[in-house]
Amino acid sequence: MRFALLLAWVAVAVALLLPLLRRRPAVAVPGAAAGILRDELVKDPVCQTYIARSRAVRVGGPESTRYFCSAECARRFAER
Question: Is 0.85 surpassed by the pTM of this model?
Answer without folding.
Answer: no
